[in-house]
Hints:
Elements: E1 24-25, H1 33-43, E2 49-56, E3 59-66, E4 82-83, H2 88-101, H3 111-114, E5 120-121, E6 124-125, H4 131-136, H5 159-166, H6 183-197, H7 201-210, E7 236-241, E8 244-249, E9 266-267, H8 269-280, H9 287-293, E10 297-300, E11 303-305, E12 310-313, E13 319-327, E14 330-336, E15 342-347, H10 355-365
Parallel strand pairs: 1-3
Antiparallel strand pairs: 2-3, 2-15, 4-9, 5-6, 7-8, 10-11, 11-12, 12-13, 13-14, 14-15
Amino acid sequence: MTKNIGRRGLAAVLGAAIALALPVSAQAQGDHAKTQAVLNAYQAESGPGAAVYGGDSAGSWQLTAGTGNTTAKKPIQPTEHFRIASQTKTFAAAVVLQLVDEGKVALDAPIEQYLPGVVTGNGYDGTKISVRQLLQHTSGIPTNRTPKPKANPDGTYSLDAVVRDGLSLPPVSAPGAEWHYSNTNYEILGMLIEKYTGTPVAQAITTRIIQPLGLTQTTFPAAGDRSVPNPAVRGYNGGRIGPVFYWFDVTTGVEPSLYSSSGAMISTQQDLAAFDHALLGGKVVSPAALAEMQKTFPVGQGAGYGLGLSRVDLSCGGSAWGHSGSTPGYVSMTVVTGDGRHASLVTNAQIESPKLVSVLDSALCDK
């Protein structure tokens, strides 16, 4: 569902909560002309539209290219909803780290200790795969590019079925040896969250993160609910017929339970920036837990992957933290810096481009 996206290294990954309070300023293109040019180049090889929501502790701004709806010239707005795909992983990781803070889970304990018999067989040994390795994609579980779990009679999927489908693929490395991005890791972590919170993972993320932070534009849709709340960025698939490019609306084409804790959520650029600021600002997990989240495994030049957080090294110095997401209809990424800058990018087709991180880098380094 999601791949790392970005400047070489990130090509492997496609104040606190200030964005909730800061209005979007109506800035002229000339105020951010360099970033607008990079955004235009990105949109030219991505979806019908693209937008970046940037800013710092003093305020926020928005740049757009193309349209968020092919039936009307309508630039994407930072309060419009879209499927955030694997940006969901940061929310799920934060709940796991809250359980660590509460003494219910230990990062370096084997998953077998918490979910007996779940990660076993087909070359897997849950006594040798730690919670940390699942969070960091170093478990050895491979990417499941074409998930085909057994569906429930109503067309939805259980977490158990999705996990068993992912584990039907044999390991690709020994635990801890290599980095392999895998939704299955976070679907197993969803089962962990459900067991140790006593609630469905959607409810756990809602009550522990979405509601306390006041992320009113963010939802974890119920199984079977394929809608995207209005106002919505329409999501598209496309194809070229001769010189003409046709876009096909797939906004309601994704069954959220197929991805659950690995990628089911819906949000907005504004809320995603607010969440990442809150996380890095110490309002979601303890300082010790956040430090663990920021211990990265190298995934290429200029990037690393921690526990549900990607690190992106910036051309202007320092690093930004966040996550990417890719699903039918959308590609997105949100990153923030320790000094309060934020940049959230979305395009409304699942067309990936290395220019994605260039847009974010430009927005964060734009003076």
